[in-house]
Amino acid sequence: MAIQAADIADIVSTTLKDLGRLRFTDLGTDKVNFVAFQQLMTKERVVIDSGYEIQWNVVVRNSGSARSVGLFAPDATNVADVMKTASIPWRHITGNYSFDEREPVMGGGAAKIVDLVSVRRNDALTAIPELMEQQAWTNPGSVSSDDPVGIPYWVCYPGSGTSGMSTGGFLGGDPSGYSAGAGGLASATYPRWQNYTGSYTSVTKQDLIRKWRRAARLTNFKAPTPGAPYGGAKDMGFYTNNTVIELLEEVLEAQNDNLGNDLASKDGMVVFQRRPVEYVYQLDANAGNPVYGIDWSQMNWVVMQGRFLKEKVVTAPNQHTVVNVHIDTTANLRCTDRRKQFVLGTGTTAF
């Protein structure tokens, strides 16, 4: 039996009941916020590029040619290889929706409550950032993964059992599942290509907050000469999960003797170095209670020329009145300086 208009759930739900014309409540995602997507998809963050992979230059050392000399000292020059290239492959993300070209007509005119095609397009454009936000806080764990790399790929926490973690340092190492190193630069060969990391036990000024301050201070690199760096001025953001946010709010309350009658006077007011500490929904699933410091001037999506949320409309095979719309993005997450990033955690395993 052929499909008729009454059998199409979207037509029934959008034309037969008065739900408030041209409005709808969007429950299409259970994600509380989209921190990384909003940061990475602004115009300033997106870099347009081409080629079969994403590649950039990294100075991994200096030649050590400087020396103190006396009068009439003979010249001694030293030419050394100091440059390497890092690279990551392109990854592809797609969202899709379909409609029969007669559906908008059936749902139009006086019977119209919402634009049916807009609802389906909105559905696809909700699914894409939801997926990208999840991927942004995930290490794919394998070079064969079709997922783009995420922040934990670039900003590694090797586990609190690693030597030196209780003190903290540039111990980020290589992301789990990538023996060649982040961007193809192994940390054993290029130890300066590591993020800062450390472990903490409790959310107190003497433990987490002290180590957090140290991490922020030691990752604040400033080049002695202008050079030609990637990115612009330092743009730090601080991110953690609900467990840590709640404890930080209690620390704030404990240091204030005049809170008045507000039982939640510090909710949403946690600030570190004059920047808000933001809640990341995806980090709630991490038993290590991570605290990330991300310099967004060095962390951005690189998007292939002409392939950012590109919409392509095609007629469905063997269904001449059905339109399929594909929304495609080709991109990956690039970090041009791992040393300016940090993560602190309580867990014993890597993430």
Question: What's this model, at a glance?
Answer:
With about 350 residues, the chain is α+β, with helices and mostly antiparallel strands.
Overall body shape: globular
Structure annotation, total helices: 7
Distance between the termini: 52 Å
Structural class: alpha+beta
Major sheet: order of its strands? 5-13-9-6-8-7
Strand-residue proportion: 15-25%
Biggest sheet character? 6 strands, mixed
Would you mind describing this structure in some detail?
This protein is α+β, with helices and mostly antiparallel strands. It is 20% helix and 22% strand. The chain is built from 7 helices and 13 strands. The protein has helices at residues 9-15, 35-40, 103-106, 116-136, 151-154, 205-218, 242-254, and strands at residues 47-49, 53-59, 83-89, 91-100, 196-199, 236-240, 271-272, 275-279, 291-295, 299-304, 310-315, 322-335, 342-345. The strands form 3 sheets. It has a 6-stranded mixed β-sheet. The termini are far apart. The relative contact order is 0.19. Residues 11-22 have low confidence and may be disordered.
What tags apply to this protein structure?
alpha+beta, 7 helices, 13 strands, 22% strand
Task: Give a topology summary.
Blueprint: H1 9-15, H2 35-40, E1 47-49, E2 53-59, E3 83-89, E4 91-100, H3 103-106, H4 116-136, H5 151-154, E5 196-199, H6 205-218, E6 236-240, H7 242-254, E7 271-272, E8 275-279, E9 291-295, E10 299-304, E11 310-315, E12 322-335, E13 342-345
Parallel strand pairs: 1-10, 5-13, 6-8
Antiparallel strand pairs: 2-3, 4-12, 6-9, 7-8, 9-13, 10-12, 11-12
